[in-house]
């Protein structure tokens, strides 16, 4: 059985699957129209489930693909590596999952750009579920941040890395399963407003004034897209709006501070900045993961909420001196 959030369910007009409570009792059937009364029923359950769909046609290709992306056959797959970016040889996330996450995200964004919003939404939810599932499988074996990092073009892997780090941090902070699902989805979508930027901004520190003005609108764009296009909750949309705000009120777009920033945004702000630093997406001279953690601590509670900040820093080993170049084959 797969956990589904109430927000995911009520965003549908017609229920696409049978719905079960925590005892395994079916409460709604696939195909039912979600009337106000049924939405109220959904909201009254803290945790809901749907069955995982599996069949032999799906299993066979998956088995072949996993074999194809084994470490032993890495050199035989340079076409896909070139398309989706290099694989992290130190990652606890297996090669197959690295490729799947990156290719699925790229495909989802392409579908979104083609205005097939509901299909893109479904694809994004599947990516979220895979990140949570993969994180659960490897959590006990992960020692270093370098073992979680995906590699590739920043715009394509940054939302994924932010989501992976956020899921680990949410578990560290002991959020429940439904909250972790919301945090993962928020992280995947936090930068979606950037799709409305004209052109690719490769170095934020070298933007012109006009580029900076446009860039600073991406939280507002993201909030609007999540609410009006993807029709997701304010909890999710608020993260896109607030992930560049700072605890001391010097962030943007509104300069809010402290508890005015949502808990989810506080979590994702830490993970967002850490991934940017470990992807050379800032003008800071950082060469390994330990230096990035030091930079987070130096920014401290002026920038980040202390609870997620210190939980993140101590979540895995602080002694991760792996350089970014060491991750690549």
Commentary on this structure:
The chain has 329 residues and is mainly α. It folds into two domains: 1-53, no CATH class; 86-327, Hypothetical protein af1432. It has helices at residues 6-10, 36-43, 56-68, 78-84, 95-113, 117-138, 154-172, 177-189, 209-215, 218-229, 234-242, 263-277, 289-303, 306-313; strands spanning 2-4, 19-20, 26-28, 48-50. α7 runs antiparallel to α8 and α13 runs antiparallel to α14. 35% of the residues are buried.
Summarize, please.
The chain has helices spanning 6-10, 36-43, 56-68, 78-84, 95-113, 117-138, 154-172, 177-189, 209-215, 218-229, 234-242, 263-277, 289-303, 306-313, and strands at residues 2-4, 19-20, 26-28, 48-50. With 329 residues, it is mainly alpha-helical.
């Amino acid at each position: 059985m797969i956990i589904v959030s109430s927000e995911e369910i009520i965003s549908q007009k017609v229920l696409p699957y049978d719905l079960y409570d925590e005892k395994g009792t079916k409460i709604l059937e696939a195909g039912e129209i979600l009337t106000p009364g049924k939405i109220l029923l959904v909201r009254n359950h803290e945790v809901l489930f749907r069955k995982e769909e599996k069949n032999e046609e799906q299993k066979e290709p998956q088995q072949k693909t996993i074999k194809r992306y084994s470490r032993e056959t890495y050199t035989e797959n340079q076409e896909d590596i070139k398309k989706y970016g290099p694989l992290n040889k130190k990652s606890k996330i297996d090669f197959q999952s690295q490729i799947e996450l990156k290719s699925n995200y790229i495909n989802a964004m392409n579908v979104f750009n083609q205005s097939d919003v509901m299909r893109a939404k479904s694809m994004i939810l599947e990516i979220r579920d895979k990140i949570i599932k993969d994180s659960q499988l490897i959590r006990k074996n992960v020692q270093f941040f370098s073992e979680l990092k995906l590699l590739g073009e920043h715009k394509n892997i940054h939302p994924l890395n932010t989501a992976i780090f956020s899921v680990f941090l949410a578990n560290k902070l002991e959020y429940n399963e439904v909250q972790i699902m919301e945090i993962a989805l928020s992280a995947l979508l936090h930068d979606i407003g950037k799709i409305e930027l004209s052109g690719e901004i490769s170095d934020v520190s070298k933007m012109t004034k006009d580029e900076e003005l446009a860039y600073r609108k991406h939280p507002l764009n993201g909030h609007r897209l999540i609410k009006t296009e993807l029709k997701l909750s304010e909890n999710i949309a608020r993260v896109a709006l607030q992930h560049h705000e700072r605890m001391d009120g010097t962030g943007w777009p509104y300069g809010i501070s402290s508890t005015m920033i949502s808990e989810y945004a506080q979590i994702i702000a830490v993970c967002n900045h850490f991934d940017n630093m470990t992807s050379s997406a800032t003008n800071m001279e950082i060469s390994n993961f330990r230096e990035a953690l030091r930079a987070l601590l130096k920014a401290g509670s002026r920038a980040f909420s202390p609870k997620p900040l210190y939980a993140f820093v101590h979540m895995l080993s602080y002694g991760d001196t792996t350089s970014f170049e060491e991750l690549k084959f």
